[in-house]
Amino acid sequence: MKIIITLFILIASITSVYAESIGNEYGYANGWFNGQEATVKNVKLKIGEPAIIKVMINSNISGHVFVKLTNPLVTEPYYVIEGPSKIGESINNYDITNGWSQTYTWTIAPNGAWKNGNAPINVFVQFFNMKTKDNKMIEFTIANPHILDEQYPGSSSTPAHTSGITPGAPAPKEAPFVHAIAALVVMMVVWWWRRR
User: Fold this and answer.
1) Residues 140 and 39 sit within 8 Å (Cβ to Cβ)
2) How many whole angstroms separate alpha carbon 22 and alpha carbon 189?
3) What is the reported pLDDT for 22?
4) Tell me, what's the pLDDT at 154?
5) How far apart are CA 55 and CA 102, in angstroms?
6) 13 lies in a domain?
């Protein structure tokens, strides 16, 4: 019984760590939307309503790392209120070393050009390895907000005061497959109990 419980705790903790980042052997990235870990669903934003996007990049190689926020729509639905780049503009990190890490934060808001529909916010990261001279890329959706055809009141005030956002404090996210693992452990316990 102790072995099964230990196995369950080990698998659940490994699954939680895995769920927090997306990557490959060259590096990985984490993303948050208003403090919730990516990918955030069921979000609604009004025109001008601020949202905080946070992206953390870690490199396992020496070389270059390129980072940008992207959107798959032809019409750009967001503008950057504050941040290190505009949507679609690359942040170029040249000559970084293995173990390099950087966190970027943007405050964005819907600009009114896209309404009554979803507008994904993606992050794109490209790692260029100086030794092998090849690239590996990561791209994932941080959030997929539905933009309402409504104006956000007080959109000129600071995001932390108008929306209750606490920057830099991501909320814990339940790891995927934990329920499936728990069910598997329960079935194993029942099977073990019947064998006795």
Assistant:
1) yes
2) 33
3) 86
4) 73
5) 8
6) no
Which residue from 111, 124, 162, 97 is spatially nearest to 22, judged by alpha carbons? 124
Q: How far apart, in whole angstroms, are the C-alpha atoms of residue 23 and residue 125?
A: 9
Give the pLDDT mean for 43-61. 96
The CA distances from residue 22 to 29, 88, 137, 142, 158, in Å, are: 5, 20, 11, 11, 31
Q: What value does the mean pLDDT take over residues 55-73?
A: 95
Instruction: Note whether 137 and 22 are within 8 A (CB).
Output: no
Report the amino acid identity of residue 24: N
Q: Is 5 inside any structural domain? A: no
> Does residue 50 form part of some domain?
yes
- CATH code at 110? 2.60.40.10
pTM of the model: 0.68
Whether 70 is covered by a domain: the verdict is yes
The pair of structure tokens assigned to 74 is: 């032809």
Q: What is the pLDDT of residue 12?
A: 41
Tell me the CA distances in angstroms from 79 to 2, 126, 193, one per residue in order: 54, 23, 59
More confident residue, 17 or 3: 3
Instruction: List helix spans (H) across the chain.
Output: 2-19, 159-163, 178-195
Considering its fold, how many domains does the chain have in total? 1
